[in-house]
Automatic annotation (TrEMBL):
The gene is Slc16a10_1. Belongs to the major facilitator superfamily. Monocarboxylate porter (TC 2.A.1.13) family. This is MOT10 protein. It catalyses: L-thyroxine(out) = L-thyroxine(in); 3,3',5-triiodo-L-thyronine(out) = 3,3',5-triiodo-L-thyronine(in). Its main location: membrane. It holds the Pfam family MFS_1. It comes from Leucopsar rothschildi. Keywords: Cell membrane, Membrane, Transmembrane, Transmembrane helix, Transport. GO terms for cellular component: basolateral plasma membrane. It is found in: Cell membrane. It comes from the Eukaryota. It is a multi-pass membrane protein.
C-alpha cells in the first residue's frame, strides 16, 4: 500500500526515536561504564584487566551491528513488531542479569552478547517500520529518529556519572533497565502496513512455510553498480566510527 505519510506512523516514529536513543545512547556511553567496571573489578594499573574490561563494551557494540543481517531476515519473516518486542525483552534480561555478576567474565555473555543481540533485534525494525508509513517525508522522519541517538548520547554520560557516584554500577544498570522496558512497550506500536512473509506464505490456514532462499537473501541487487558502491562504501566509512567510543578513555 501507499505510505500514508503520517497517521499512526508518527507514533512509530517516536518509538523508533526512543529505540535509537536507548540503544545507541547506552552503547556510546560505554566509556563511563568502562571506568566504573575498572574500579569495581580491580584497578586501572592492571593492564590485563583493562584489556579484558574493554572487551565487554567492544563485544557489545560489535554484536549490535554484526547481528544485523540475521535480524533483517527475521524482520522479513515475522514482521517488525514481534522482532522488536522479543529483542527488547532479551536486551532487558541481558542488562538486568549484568547487574548481578561478581566478576568481569560473565559480562561477556550477559552484556556483550545477550544485551547486545537484544538491542540489535529491537533496533533494526525501528528503521524498517518508517518506510511503511513514510515516503515523501522519509528523510525528515529519519532525521528526527536519528536525533534521538544524539540526545541520549549527549545526556546519558552525565546521568550515568551521577548514578554511579550515588548508587554504584550495579544499581545504575538496573536503572538503565527502565529504558529497555520502555523500549519493550514501544515495540508494540510497530503496526505494519505491509504483510510479513509468514502471513503471505501461511494464508488463511496460518501454516508457516520457509520461503525460498532467493526471497530471504536477494543477492541479485548486487548486479546494480550504484548499489555495490553504496554497500561496500558505507561499511568502509564506518570501519573506524565506533573505535573512539571504546578507546578514547585510555
Amino acid at each position: 500500500p501507499e505510505p500514508p505519510e503520517g497517521g499512526w506512523g508518527w507514533g512509530g516514529m517516536l518509538a523508533a526515536m526512543w529505540c535509537n536513543g536507548a540503544v545507541l545512547g547506552i552503547q556510546n556511553s560505554c566509556g563511563v561504564l568502562f571506568v566504573s567496571m575498572l574500579r569495581l573489578f580491580g584497578s586501572s594499573e592492571d593492564k590485563q584487566l583493562v584489556f579484558k574490561t574493554a572487551w565487554v563494551s567492544s563485544l557489545s557494540m560489535g554484536m549490535v551491528f554484526f547481528s544485523s543481517p540475521i535480524v533483517s531476515i527475521f524482520t522479513d519473516l515475522f514482521g517488525c513488531r514481534k522482532v522488536a518486542v522479543i529483542g527488547a525483552a532479551v536486551g532487558l534480561v541481558g542488562l538486568l542479569s549484568s547487574s548481578f555478576v561478581s566478576t568481569i567474565e560473565p559480562l561477556y555473555f550477559t552484556y556483550g552478547i545477550l544485551f547486545a543481540c537484544g538491542c540489535s533485534f529491537a533496533y533494526q525494525p525501528s528503521l524498517v517500520i518508517l518506510g511503511h508509513y513514510f515516503k515523501k517525508r522519509l528523510g525528515l522522519v529519519n532525521g528526527i529518529v536519528t536525533a534521538g541517538s544524539s540526545l541520549f548520547t549527549v545526556s546519558l554520560p552525565f546521568l550515568l556519572r551521577v548514578l554511579i557516584d550515588s548508587v554504584d554500577l550495579y544499581n545504575t544498570l538496573r536503572v538503565l533497565c527502565i529504558l529497555m522496558f520502555v523500549l519493550f512497550l514501544a515495540g508494540f506500536t510497530y503496526k505494519p502496513l505491509v504483510p510479513n512473509t509468514k502471513e503471505k506464505e501461511g494464508g488463511k490456514k496460518g501454516k508457516f512455510k520457509l520461503p525460498p532462499a532467493k526471497k530471504i537473501c536477494n543477492f541479485s541487487v548486487f548486479k546494480v553498480l550504484s548499489y555495490r558502491i553504496w554497500a561496500f562504501g558505507i561499511p568502509a566509512a564506518l570501519f573506524g566510527y565506533f573505535v573512539p567510543y571504546v578507546h578514547l578513555v585510555s
